[in-house]
TrEMBL record:
Keywords: Antibiotic resistance, Hydrolase, Signal. It comes from Peribacillus simplex. The gene is penP. Pfam families: Beta-lactamase2 (PF13354). GO terms for molecular function: beta-lactamase activity. This is Beta-lactamase. Its EC number is 3.5.2.6.
Amino acid sequence: MNKRWFYQILAPIGLVLMVAGCSDEEKQVVQQSETEQTGGTNQTSENITAKEATIKKFEQLEKEYDAKLGVYAIDTGTKETVEFHENERFAFTSTHKALAVGALLQQKSIEELNQRITYTSEDLVNYNPITEKHVDTGMTLKELSDASLRYSDNTAGNLILEQLGGPAGFKKVLEGIGDNVTNPERIEPDLNVVNPSETHDTSTPIALATSLQAFTLGDALPTEKRELLIDWMKRNTTGDALIRAGVPKGWVVADKTGAGSYGTRNDIAIIWPSKGDPIVLAVLSSRDEKEADYNDELIAEATEEVIKALKVKGK
């Protein structure tokens, strides 16, 4: 008889005999062990199946909107994550402004935010809804931060970068919080044009989300400054159709949007469910054609899938 076949038959028989010879207490331990092993396997299989289903949903969204999608989310309570092209590079566009203001807050005291910065009409660039109204008087760093975050004012964003020592200084601050991926090199509006395979002014979903988490929920800033940054982002005026549109009613979102060439549309956010711990989310997207339009709906629908995957719908 083949020994391997013989032992395959003998093993379950031995287990039965072993259990039969055990006390009731010992039998319970054996049965519990078998149940835990089976349950663990089933749970792992369910998790894999759920992740595969979420990936398929994201792939369907890519096809539907003819776009490339990148997603990273983390439930800061359960530590569960949702990932899709999370390590692929996208133009970060104006989402960088949230991190730049975080960097400014790291370098300036609350009192120093009242410093008035002057500029001329020559400093105005392509989108200046707030700064263009204050050329004669200038604006404080606090006012520039508000304009940059809540209205995505590009001149305000550039003046903040100037305070950091330009893109190079900004990059140094990011490296200081552990972000060696985000790669700022230019200012507005040039940073919004990133051709395929270029890495300047790009980042990844996981890098942006992790840096945002460091500034808003982590220890990169003291409490008072974190609260100031979060308050500006909660009152953002440009994000109603993006991540905010994809979360259940009553949830609170603090976000920063961005848009650029190649149909780039981005949003990074901290989300507070009605119950439970905050979720950090980055949703980035782009298309193949340089002049392609972007789709807000893609960001909103991707957000809906993230919430489903994290199973926080009922919180």
